[in-house]
Every structure is written in structure tokens, then in C-alpha cells.
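Long-time lurker. I teach an intro course on protein structure, and each term I like to show students one example going from raw sequence to a predicted 3D structure in C-alpha cell notation. This year I'd like something fresh instead of my usual example. Would anyone be willing to generate the C-alpha cells for the chain below so I can use it in lecture? Attribution to the forum is fine with me.
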Amino acid sequence: MPAANDLRKGQVITFNGEPHLIMETQHRTPGNLRAFVQVKMRNLRYGKSLEQRFNSPDHVDVLSTDRRTLEFSYADRDTFSFMDPESFETFEIGTAMIGEAKYYLVPNGKADVLFINDVPVTIDIPSSVVLKITESAEGIKGDTASNVQKPATCETGLVVNVPLFIKAGEMIKVSTADGSYLGRA
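-- Reply from a regular --
Happy to contribute to a lecture. Here you go:
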């Protein structure tokens, strides 16, 4: 087992029997005290972040991980199906792990999935996606003096505020961080 000094950002460790993703590490040597490593980490099962202090010689259990880029295939009630484009292996991920990312998943869209012992643990989606507008109210002609926006429903069920000139059937680029309109695609 590696020492706490060897911990790096992106590694997954076992802490209190749960897998934790290391988000930040700082090695500190205060005055005449012993050196320690301050670690900011996130529980992969519950999503809560915490900070923990390890003594430099402490040993930590680092888990072997694998990060793969998968293609989203389809959603079926409580499960989302993904396929590895290299091996054509399929994986099913539950809605609890997907969370709000379900509004940004389109068929053949890419997502990075973190695996621990061949079990998917977390999913990361791109910073922006292209979605098709399925429903949008008509804009009033001549109402272009200010930045007026209207709600529009996308193919995934996401409701986005868009400018008045956007119509149903158009493709738009949407930020996955806050669900805001970025522009036409």
C-alpha cells in the first residue's frame, strides 16, 4: 500500500470502507510539527465532499480504476444503456448515478465513465451538448428591441430559455453546467 505522500488528484482510495475520489492534495510541514497531507475528497457512493488529514507515513488503500469513454445508446425507465465503441460491450447505469445528466444524454452522445473493478461508479458528461428543440412558442414579430427569451423544450425533456427567433426543429448548443442556451448548432 502506498504512503499518504504518494496520493495524487484523480486517484480513488478506500476511506472508512467507502470509495473516495481525491479532488485535491496538499503536503504541509508546519513549523516544528510533523509533516501531513491534507486531502479533499468526494465519496463516490453518496457524493459528499470532505477534507481529511493523513500523517505522511500513513498507508492508504488505492483502488485500481479505469476511465472509459462510452456512447449513450438508450434509456429504459430506470436504466441507461451505454456501449464501449472499441469492444462493443454494453453497460447499464441506474438513474441514481446519472442524476441530472439524463437531460444532456442523446443517442450516440459521449460520456466518460469511471470504473472500479469493472463496476461503473461515476459519469462525466461534456461541458456542452447539441440538442434538438421539439416544442417552442412562436415569437411575436417586431419584439427584438431587448433580450427577450422564451421557454423551449428539448428532445430530452430539458426546458431551456432561448431567444425569440429559435423555432421547433432547430438544433441548439446547451451548457451542461447550468442548462443555459449557448447558441445555434
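Some talking points for your students: The longest strand covers residues 65-76. The chain has three domains: 4-63, 65-124, 128-184.
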